[in-house]
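Incident log, entry 3
Record: Glucosaminidase (262 residues)
Problem: checksum mismatch between cached and fresh output.
Input:
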Amino acid sequence: MKSGRIKKVTLGLAAVGFGLIIIASQFPSQKLSIDTLPLTKNERSSDAPDFASINDIAAKKVTFFDYLRPKVEQQNRVVAREREFLLSIKQSVKDQRALTELEREQLTTIAHNYRFEARKLDEESIKGLLERVDVLPTEMVLVQAANESGWGSSRFAVEGNNYFGQWCFSKGCGLVPNARSSGLNHEVARFKDVDASVASYLNNVNTNPAYQELRKVRSWLRAAEQPVEAKDLIPSLTAYSERKQDYVDELLDMLVHNRRLL
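Fresh output:
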């Protein structure tokens, strides 16, 4: 776990004419860009397999990927729908078509959720928002979840539905790490279910300044009409772990060795 403190995000939102103003604090650290709501009890997802009880490594991997893949794909579909909406808005702006009130409200909500700042509504601002509102390769998400959760067997995955090692800073928002260094006050976030953990991870990678390079690489690939693959984005995840390049190398190694299962 990293030692840096993550500031709680403060958001302000206002609509100005056809434009938007989104004001968000910057995140100096890596894994979590939002605080989770505290839960009053352990709410482990009821459909999660008992991964720790699966002794056969190959069987555990298959079970893990088969369990998590549909959840990742579902959350990616949510992002894909938001992106499709933004592409339609971009075309409307290009055609100088006035947006409906419902479209403006939806656009404001998406910008808010993705912590995007824009002073006016134009093609350039929509382009900037589209850089954030995009799916992540399922293979990348799966290998990172496997790495961070110990193939679903970690305490944080079992007790907190947290498959990505995400942190939070409100007292009681998560689980206190057993090896937390003196003077630190972070907790490992606890989610109501695994779907919420995946959604939070996607939002974190799509908004946190630590992953701006990843988003730029993805945007370049889109512009070049090239496939966006895990092997192209994983190298930009050095900020996710204190292990830096060693962490990235491990993810890339996992990607190669589990290719047939992914």
